[in-house]
Design a protein that fits this description.
- This protein is an alpha/beta fold and 639 residues long.
- It folds into four domains: 203 residues, 3-Layer(aba) Sandwich (Rossmann fold); 73 residues; 240 residues, Rossmann fold, CATH 3.40.50; 95 residues, Helicase, Ruva Protein, domain 3, CATH 1.10.8.60.
- The chain is 42% helix and 15% strand.
- It has 22 helices and 20 strands.
- The strands form six sheets. A six-stranded mixed β-sheet has the order 5-4-6-7-1-8. The protein has a five-stranded parallel β-sheet with strand order 10-11-14-9-17.
- α4 runs parallel beside α5, α7 crosses α8 and α9 crosses α10.
- The radius of gyration is 34 Å and the shape is elongated.
Amino acid sequence: MSIESPTLGGRLQGWPPFIRELDATLSVHSQYVLSGNLYDSFLTPAADGGGHGQLLPLRALLWETLRSSGASFMAVYDPVDGLQVIPGPGDPGGDEAAQAAERLLGKLKPDDKPSLEALTRLLAAMARPKENVRAAFVIDSASRIARTPTDLEPAERDFFRVCAKLSRSARPVRVPGARPKPLYNPIVWLVERPGDLPPWLTTDNETIREITIPRPHLGDRQETARLLARAFGISDVGEDEVAAAACDAFAEQADGLTLQSMIEVTRLAKERNVDLADLPDAVRTYKLGVLDNPWSRGHLRRRVLEGERRVPERVIGQPQAVTKTLDILKRAVLGLSGAQATRSGSRPRGVLFFAGPTGTGKTELAKAITELVFGDESAYLRFDMSEFSGEGSGDRLIGSPPGYVGHEAGGELTNAVREDPFRVILFDEIEKAHPRILDKFLQILEDGRLTDGRGNTVHFSESILIFTSNLGMFVPGRDLALRDASHDPGMGTRVQNITPGMSYEEVQHRIKSAVADHFTEVLNRPELLNRFGDNIVVFDFISAEAAHKIFDLQFANICRRVTDEHRLVLTVKSEPLATLREWCTEELDKGGRGIGMALESHFVNPLARALFDRDLGPDEKVTVTGIRREGGIVHLDLT
């Protein structure tokens, strides 16, 4: 491929920006450090000058660029393959390249793996050529040369010292052709991160240029999708509106992927006999590494419809919260979450923010959703965010960064989602998390992915995220005073914001206002509040009617447990049962959990005390005839 252009400004039009930057600065920089997206393929104009472009790996891209500037060969060294010359034997121009390399670098052995001392001599010959030969030297996997960039061994230190000196003492070369002006024979370092080289090598060294290779943007992915459409027998996407729409959808779904990954997705699709229009499903398979998608199961819609009956029986007294949650779940099943956005495919399947009084069923509803979708309530993953209040506690979620203890283990959240991306993930009491952790949630909610401490990307596009919070139960006294002029709380105090007996509309308004104030005024994270949007589901205090239903349910569980464990027939007379019901349901602000704790204190404990010393036989009948309090202790009368 020959590229001729009389002016520098017209060179390499349509090529990746980073390669044009390198090409344009060969006259002023003797060394380059390339980092970032090194292992991708890159879009370039077609070799024949036609309408179709082509995809080249980085080595080929560098060689085509350097050859267009008059380079005779490109030497490539990496610690595994040793030293190679491009073009190689059998390639067009391979013999001429070998001769030029021998003139400049001396006799080279095929696949030679030179020591650092020998590599130093080769780099010196390249930077200060004795022959009028234009070439380049690429050091691949340069991150692996030094054990650690800040603690070099003597041989490593000497090698990089020479490289630093060579960067300043390099001599440009003139050759006839498209670019007759003096250009350096560049030494190109390929590193995973710029910090993988000794910092003193590039600091205040204007002869070394650092260039970061970015991941492809949407335009690159769209052009690549059109190139890959040829694998499905479509030679000109521009003339096929359906194919063009499918390519655009493919490019949008491939957000976060490299162009090389898009090539692999296309191969995967061809192996599974997937059509061009169904490539987004192949993208999901590639990202998640799984073939079975619970969201595509035919029975899921039926299960959700059944959930309209089953969930209210499990989460008692919260009709508004259950209805809104099921609406959001239906949206997730149909794949319509975030449908209003230009690109929504990579976002989580569903996002819910449960807020309201404690003990009203927030965690229970999360379990019910999990059982509804995945058939097993234990499939949900729970994080108590009170354990993540420290600044560095976020490492538990995504893993420690390189160099820190536990880096190899990864993060609890990222490991679990990588293992099984089809999950309900519950973040309990989100307001107790450190503010820096909230930035991680912002990335998940917006992009549907998170990079762990090991540099691996985890995708949340098939997960349901549930955040719970007790925000709004109490507010600073001054805020409440502004809302209610008849109330005059003391300055600096926290007072109850909502109370049993308020209408649901008032509870909902006050809690949503408190949540908004917390994220905008206290945390200064309005963007996170915007990501939750209208997915904030407010739970009400349980009513007296709901409290009695919860009492009956939990009381029946206790009797069943006694029967299962001890084969006893337990009966409670109506009078003590009424007294017990009154005691357990008198504090509605503690919710269903408060009823359970009261039952344990007022019934389970005295029942265990009464039964413990008795010699009971199987199928024996035990009847509670009375219940009383004496000195703060509850006693049961049994017959």
